[in-house]
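Risk mitigation, structural track. In case the binding assays with magnesium ion fail to produce interpretable data, a predicted complex structure has been prepared as a fallback.
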Amino acid sequence: MAPEIKYTKLFIDNEWVDAKSGKTFETRSPHDGAVIARVAEGDKADVNEAVKAARRAFHRNSEWRLMDASQRGRILNKFADLVERDAEYLGQLESYDNGMVLNLAQLVTGSAGKSIRYIASLADKIQGDTIPIDGEAFSYTLKQPVGVCGLILPWNFPIAMFLNKVMTALAAGCTVVIKPAEQTPLTALALAALLKEAGVPKGVVNVINGYGETAGVALTHHPHVAKISFTGSAEVGKLIQQAAGARNLKRVTLELGGKSPLVVMDDADLNLAVPYAAHGVFSHQGQVCVAASRLYVQSTIYDKFVEAAVNFAKSIKVGNPTDATVQQGPQVDEEMMNKVLGYIERGKKEGAKLMTGGKRVGSTGFFIEPTVFAGVSDDMTIAKEEIFGPVQSILKFDTLEEVIDRANDTNYGLAAGIFTTNINTALQFTKHVEAGVVWVNTYLFTGPQCPFGGVKDSGYGRENGIQSVDPYLEVKTVTVALPKKL
Ligand code: NAP
Ligand code: MG
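Fallback model:
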């Protein structure tokens, strides 16, 4: 049964309002293409209202700014309780709007409480330093929230991305305006309702559904927004960095996906490497920023590995995301499905060997067969560009030295992985590979305690971990003169 849709409007100042233009847009189910709901379509005028509300809530005399930091943490902990109370419903809503298999959506919402509490625990541990300096003075630092933050979300993990960004900004004491992705607005609205229920004062959290070109652009250009945090494509990330400097100088955090290399050495345990490599690229239909989309296998085991990888891919069950036995659901929309199918055609045309898959499944919904290419070389488009679909590209290498150079020969630098039983090999690889996250004998394994983010064109700044609040804080140095004599 379809989950109930409770919220479809904009959320400003703790109230549900229509867009000033009166416009709405459709959100559809990727499973069958049916319209789930019509959602208020915010644009510049609505962003202006939301930023005004967020600014009022950030005033030095506001309830939020005067609140004891421990109380701020308590409100966020209360929110964790509410997310746990509604975890099943939120998982259903995520699956319905995004096409994520229900099992994965329930895993995300089931562990959300832990992530929220981790970040909430940082709220009252934000403190500066006292600094000895020469002369008759002493200095200390204050760490203060940067101000109104614009948080622009992708559609691939709407709940997880909402929580990462919103919790961190709130723990730091900021106020926020959130723009969810046009494909997946529903869970952001449901979470905003829970933040209100948890006791977040009005204006602290605002949600403007809408399109990147209108609502997103208005947010990134708004002179009263102090910081933007964005997860999405590298292309849009670059636009956001430019926009952020156009009127005022916004602080920016960017998480922009990748073309992550996973290396399998010939001493690896293939009983682990084969399923992890598959999980790394087929999980969530390949719509994962850290997807292991360049799989480098040592030449001595290449043919054996490819055979096992093909068998694994063939065993993946594709279908209705709410079916508990299904492992792969639909791509998020028709446009993304066609983009992925286009990459598959490019792969074939450029000479990669299609071993299995490669086609759309059925004609309803946006499903693609788990696809494996062998004989992929570094110069092929499928080895260079982020596909964001269920496409495993297997490349061949001979030595560790060679594969490190090839792994690094990309503008991206989000994640990397290696399967080996040789500690030396693992340590050399982890030291020299250019990535923000590296896995050894596992893949996609993380927790709220671990900093997450990229290097090079995969962006900068880290989410999660103790330092995650820093990009939402300014350091103010105060120097106080001491009288020479008592
Ligand atoms: P996208 O265009 O980068 O969208 C991400 C978010 O930015 C959405 O909320 C989007 O709004 C908004 N946006 C778009 N243009 C903007 C602008 N000029 N100013 C401000 N905000 C703007 O991503 P996409 O089109 O959905 O997906 C395209 C590709 O991005 C995928 O194929 C994949 O390669 C990559 N991607 C990466 C991640 C990741 O986790 N790093 C996540 C999603 C996608 P709309 O809702 O209107 O698009
Ligand atoms: Mg887009």
